[in-house]
Structures are given as structure tokens and as C-alpha cells.
Design goal:
The protein is of the alpha/beta class. It is built from 6 helices and 10 strands, in the order E-E-E-E-H-E-H-E-H-H-E-H-E-H-E-E. A hairpin with a 4-residue loop joins strand 9 and strand 10.
Length: 253
């Protein structure tokens, strides 16, 4: 399984319209070609609404939902997940970014409600309730495929990971270090039919209480640069035991 490959042009919304691309909880980080959404009205915000209530978009109308450092602020993430599932069309994609739960960034903002880990999203995928035996999760009716979680490593660990003979050991040790991973990028897709759910459960390489995880680092940090060059796309590199390769490049910031 790999990271996200967005193909919104291949999706067609209702009445032949192009699917919406939603940047929700945008704050001041607006994106071209997206509908920039936030709670408070502002000149740079296209639509303002509460993410923890009904979203003002039709069912199956969006191809992409993007939320950067939003979900950790929500007291009701369940409504957020239900509404994102509703507005995304079959084949749509959602990318969520948030601080890694063990990093101090998960708590240094006093408006953060809870820490998040890749496994925090397991309850939204089919099979979780069966794996855990938790009956309270049996009635979740808005299932998601979790393609993978990218764990973004702090740039100051670059010098240790550059030394290939110990890279595997450093990555294994990193799971126990609170400051090793700074951020999670979750890549998800709504499962909107019994056939889609069955195919996901057949094809995924893990149980319903697990998530496929990759280690990544920003390219500019891997190359020893403090920030990207002007006009350079933000790019994640997959840091594997034996190789370092491009995970994906994006216009997202």
C-alpha cells in the first residue's frame, strides 16, 4: 500500500459537475482551487460553518477533503468524520494532518482537546469492533479505508538516519522517543458500498485494530535545509530501512 494519489479529475460529481475540493478549518492557510472553509467569516474564507455540525454541501459532492491541524481542536470528531464521509463521493480522498500524540506539540496549544495517534483512527475502519470486542463500536455506520499513516520525523534526527548501517535501529528506537515523530499525515477514503467494504477487508494487510504506517521526512530537512526554497513544492520522503525515496510532492502547505 502507498500514500495518496489524488485523481479528482477522474471523479464526476452529481449532474456532471467537477467534484469539490474542500480545505476545511483553513484558518489563514488558504489553497488555490479549493473551497476554503472555516468557523469564522473572513475575507479569505469562502464558506464559514461549524465542522461539528452539518456541513453545507450535498452528499457525494466532494472529491477531496483536506484538514491541516484541525481535528485535535474538535470536541466532537465523530460528527466531523460522519460529515466528511457524507460529502465525499465514492473514490474521494481525505487527508488529515495533526501533531503526533507523543510529541509535546500535541499539547502545547491549550485549545488542543486530545492527542492523536495513527491507531486512533482504527475505530472508523471495518473490522475494528470485531478485533477489539468493543460493542460500543459495532454501530459505526460511516466506514473508512485507511490507506496509510505517514509519521513525519523531526528534522534534527536526519544525521542519525543518514548513516544507513544504523538506520533500521534508529527507526525502531524512534517508536519509543517522544520527540522523534512530529506530525501524522492520515490518508483515508470513504467506503460507501458493501462491495467496497468487502474489498477493503480482503485487500488490507493488517487487522481492523491496526494501521499501515510509514516513516517520512520533508525533503528540505533531509537535505539539511531549514525551509523549502522559494517556489519549491513541499515534499515528503519515505525513509525506509534500505532506501530513501519520494513519497509524494504536494501543493499543500
Amino acid at each position: 500500500m502507498s500514500g495518496p494519489i489524488y485523481q479528482p479529475a477522474a471523479l464526476v460529481a452529481k449532474d456532471g459537475k467537477q467534484p469539490l475540493k474542500l480545505n476545511v478549518g483553513c484558518g489563514r492557510n488558504t489553497m488555490d482551487d479549493f473551497i476554503n472553509c472555516d468557523l469564522d467569516a473572513a475575507p479569505h474564507v469562502d464558506v464559514n460553518f461549524d465542522l461539528q455540525k452539518d456541513w453545507p454541501f450535498e452528499d457525494n459532492s466532494a472529491g477531496i477533503v483536506y484538514a491541516s491541524h484541525v481535528i485535535e481542536h474538535l470536541t466532537d470528531p465523530f460528527t466531523f468524520m460522519r460529515q466528511a464521509w457524507r460529502v465525499l463521493m465514492p473514490g474521494g480522498q481525505m487527508t488529515l494532518r495533526m501533531p503526533y500524540g507523543s510529541h509535546r506539540a500535541a499539547w502545547w496549544d491549550l485549545t488542543h482537546i486530545r492527542p492523536w495517534f495513527p491507531e486512533s483512527f482504527c475505530m472508523f475502519q471495518p473490522g475494528h469492533a470485531v478485533c477489539t470486542g468493543n460493542p460500543q463500536h459495532m454501530n459505526w455506520e460511516w466506514p473508512w479505508a485507511i490507506h496509510c499513516a505517514d509519521m513525519r520525523i523531526a528534522g534534527n534526527f536526519r544525521r542519525w538516519l543518514k548513516w544507513k548501517p544504523i538506520r533500521k535501529q534508529v527507526l525502531n528506537l524512534g517508536r519509543s522517543l517522544t520527540e522523534f515523530a512530529e506530525e501524522i499525515w492520515m490518508y483515508m477514503q470513504p467506503l460507501k458500498s458493501a462491495e467496497a467494504i468487502a474489498e477493503y477487508e480482503r485487500a488490507r494487510p493488517h487487522w481492523g485494530n491496526a494501521v499501515y504506517v510509514r516513516w517520512v521526512m520533508y525533503r528540505h530537512q533531509w537535505e539539511g535545509r531549514e525551509r523549502p526554497a522559494e517556489g519549491e513544492k513541499l515534499e515528503l520522503l519515505h525513509i525506509g530501512d534500505d532506501e530513501v525515496r519520494a513519497a509524494w510532492a504536494t501543493e499543500l502547505s
